[in-house]
Amino acid sequence: MKIDFMPLTWIKSPDDLSFQIRNTLIIKDVLSKFKEVKELKQLLEKTQYGFTASASEFGMYKLLRITDLKSGKVNWENVPFCDGNCEKYLLKEKDIVIARTGNNKSFLIKEVPDNAVFASYLIRLEVNEKLLLPEYLYIFLNSYVFWSQVIEMQTGTAIPNVNAEKLKKLIIPYCSIEEQKKIIDNIFDKNLKEEINKIEKFLENKEELSKNVSHDKAILSSLRQSILSEAVSGKLVPQNKEDEPAKELLRKIKKEKENLIKEGKIKKGKELPVISDDEIPYDLPKGWIWMRLGDVCDVKGGKRIPKGYLLQDVPTKYIYIRVTDMKDGTIKDNKLKYISEDIYQLIKQYTISKDNLYITIAGTIGEVGFVPSKFDNMNLTENAAKIINYGVDKSFLKLILSSKFAKDQFLDKVNQMAQPKLALMRILTTKIPLPPLPEQHRIVEKVDSLMGFCDELELRIKENKINSEGLMSGVLSEVFGIGEDIHI
User: How many Å apart are CA 401 and CA 328, to the nearest integer?
Assistant: First the structure.
């Protein structure tokens, strides 16, 4: 018999995990001491599938379903009703029901209301109480001795599914009724008590560590935003009176755009509304100014591939960059999609340059990042746009647009939509503070330094989590011989 510990998605809470592992230690101890196993069919009176009926708000019978089984408990007040000829499905004390699909939850009936039946996706197990106590069987059904066998009998799926015949073939470590009663009454020898206490203490410490990791992550996220907030309010680095004021930078950018319009290289955009005094959220340092993003940038959307065409996995020289490729402020290259030459010819003007920033406008809203050189002039999804910058430090622009101040503006209107999508004009009209260009460079340098410190903290948090998971596997292997065949 082989016992394996595997992460089971339906065992979520620390108490549930502790319950499963405690039971595993108990059943493994039985196997070690008495060296006897039996097929479950030798110990059962019968198995029975439940009643097929639709749940109703009213009826003669309570209808217990899989969804009513929660952490070994049932709130009978929330169990629906049904009607029909279902006397043979009536539940009684000490019945065990087990789900035959999904996660194989089991439930030991201790107190049951009158006229309660069980639904068709549950199997009732009735034991021969001269040989097997229901409470002992319930301990087995909630142990990794049980889960290891159920997972092993699956073919082509990681989701356990059992039927009555499969259940009957399960091997259960066996001991006498007298020993089963001791187990049910928590009467254990010294060694088993120590093992149970050890694992329960470890799980308590692990849960505390997990809470600390979550807390640290939240603090770190807050710290990153605080750094950006200080940066966009002019409090991160000192001002230098020798710096040329931002209004001069803005004047030069406007002049450059006018020249590009005259030369036909860009089109004149819509007139942007002037920022009124009422719109100014806070005072800026001397030399800074408030402006619209569209005063110093253009924003152009991407393009959906034409109807009837498909993205492909086979590489071509034409990459189609999607929102799913845009992660952590850059473009990842692990799951790229490509387009053919004929599709490229239809949408070739909708590309993004390494000199641009990207911004996501659907799905994930308002994420901003750099374009690595290897993605220069690649086709861009319709769910993102490119930001064309005319003289602001690109890294400064990214950190401004990554701040909560900018993101709140992006999401202000978007959250009111049934299918959220960030309008390009909404991006262009976003208010941003503009410092002198030399100060932009100093701010970027300072932010990079502080974010590097945050990255180091994040790495330590990840290491703590990895160490915790590794320690978990190590302790479990030590305590009950995980992954080893146990011979009798």
Answer: 14
Sign of the Cα pseudo-torsion (22, 25, 28, 32, in order) = negative
Gyration radius of the chain over CA positions: 32
pLDDT of residue 385: 96
pLDDT score for 487: 46
Query: Which pLDDT score, from 0 to 100, does residue 466 have?
Result: 59
Q: Please give the model's pTM, rounded to 2 decimal places.
A: 0.59
Which three-class secondary structure state does DSSP give residue 398? Answer: helix
Which residues of the chain carry a pLDDT beneath 50? 156-158, 480, 482-484, 486-488
Tell me which residue of 252, 210, 161, 300 sits closest to 17, measured CA to CA: 210
Per-residue confidence (pLDDT) for residue 485, from 0 to 100: 52
Q: Mind giving me the DSSP string for 330-395?
A: EE--SS-EE--HHHHHHHTT-EE-TTSEEEE-BSS-S-EEE--GGGTTEEE-TTEEEEEESSS-HH
3-class SS shares of the chain: helix, strand, coil, % to 5 = 45, 15, 40
The pair of three-digit structure tokens given for residue 241, joined into one six-digit string: 């009176």
Q: What whole-number distance in Å separates Cα of residue 300 and Cα of residue 303? A: 10
Burial class (CB in 10 A: 0-12, 13-18, 19+), 171: middle
- The partner residues of 434 in beta bridges, in order of sequence, read 289
| Both tokens assigned to 132 | 């097997």
Burial class (CB in 10 A: 0-12, 13-18, 19+), 384: buried
Q: Take residue 324 and report the two structure tokens written for it.
A: 């799913």
pLDDT digits (tens, 9 = 90+) for 246-279: 999 999 999 999 999 999 999 888 889 999 999 9
User: What single letter denotes the amino acid at residue 44?
Assistant: L
